[in-house]
Structures are given as C-alpha cells and as structure tokens.
Amino acid sequence: MLSPAPVAQEFFWDDLLEYIGERRVIPIIGAELLTVPDGAGGEAPLMRVLAQKLAERLRVSADDCTGDDALHQVVCRHLQRGGRREEVYPRIRTLLKELAPAVPPILRDLARIRHFNVFVTTTFDSLLAHALDEERFPGSSTAPGAPRTVSLAYSPNNTTDLPPDARRSDTPTVFHLLGRLSASPDYVITEEDTLEFFTAMQSESKRPNVLLDELKSSHLLLIGNTFPTGSRASSSASRRAAASRSSARNSRSSPTGGRATSRASCSSCKISPTARSSSSRATPPNSCAS
Q: What average pLDDT does the segment 76-103 reach?
C-alpha cells in the first residue's frame, strides 16, 4: 500500500508553483537566510556575528550568545550594566556598515523569480533590496533616475503602509515589517520590541491596512523565520499584560490625570519599550507554506 505522504508533498509543491505563477504568493524573509563567511571556509549567521561585534563594542560578554536571540541577549546585558537602550541602535548601524556583508546567493535566487513582486522581510538590513536591484536592474541600479526597488519600513512611530498598487507595479517592493536599520530606535532588536511592533499593528490608528489585507488574501511563503516557542511567547504576553494592568492602576492614582503609558520589562533585563494600546482584534494572515 502506498504511503500518502509523498503524494501530499508532491501536491503541495505543484500547488505552490501554480500560486506563484498566478502571483498569489508573498514571500516573508527571515534572518536565517542571512549568512557571512566565518573565516574557516564556512558560513555563520549574520545576526550572530553582529551580536558578537556589538558585544565587543559595548564591552559585555557574549560567549554563550549563540542562539537566534543572540542580539537580544547582548542588548539585555548592556542594559543590566546600566547602559542606555538608545546607545545600541547607532552602533548596530555602524557595525553593519563596517561588516558590509555580501548579498547571500539565496536572496539572489529569490530576486530572480519575477512572479514575486512584493516581499516582506522581518530583518532590518537592506540585503534583499540590494539583491533585487542587482538582479532585476543590472548595470543601472546606481545610475541617477534608474529604476530601483521600493523599500518601505513600518515602525510604531512611522506607520508606513504598502501602496495599493504594489502587487501590479513593474518595480518590486520590499516591506520591512519590523523596521529598517537606522540610528534611531525604529527597528526590532529585542523580543519586547517585536511584541511592541505587533501590538501597534493591531491598533486602529497604526494598522497598515493595505499590507495586512494583502497578507490575509495571499498565500504566504515563510523562509528563514524563527518564532519564539510557546512558553517564551506566553511569558512575554503575560509580562506585557501585567505591566498594562499596573500602568492602568498608576494612571488612576496619578495627580496629573495623564494617559497611562504601559511599560514592559524583558525577562532577563530591564527593557522598557513604550507599549501602544490595541483597540482592534488581531488579523492573522493565511499561510500556505513554511
């Protein structure tokens, strides 16, 4: 008797190719696709290398920071020593410029698939946009007025949305879901930052409606993404809820009568990003592949 598993897998790839051909798939690119040479003939995750370099610059230990949350851990240790959170962002920007990583081949492969015209990335670097410029506009990407990839970035302080005609445009679009590299704190470097961004996206005033509607109506191809385990995610959510309740109590007793600003703390250090209240329900997109 034949096992149904290989048949189901074959159907999956057949269906995926059909959806791609109809331009109904949006790739969501994660940090696992970003690697740099490790000096020994192999490859190392870019974010892990960046975390090690940041630890050296901030003079904190990073010997055991080897997981996918290495950058988060380094920032936590910096804050535990009395460092300021705002000091981290410009240093990451400087370090990434110094590293000047080459575009990974896998990003070039994705850029060559012309049926992908809207890309969502959860990383803050510009490597995906560089790959699209070099593969789709060879020889002209640096010329004045030459066509270039549209690069957009969301942050709670800058609620950029996807243009309504992005799917039909001749120019590819990269949307940085969790912010883009900057000297300002406008991109995600910790788990609490991630929670803050997604909380803001679900509020009526900060919701990127076009983007979320496109994700909801499309098939999503998640590549190179790592998500917190259930225990880590629920722990973060519990801390945020507790902080929100505490802030609400403080606002009621505040003599100024001002609006409460809820603060959440990291489990391993005191990170206190400003939380945005959510007045709408989450609208999770439909995913067809992982």
A: 93
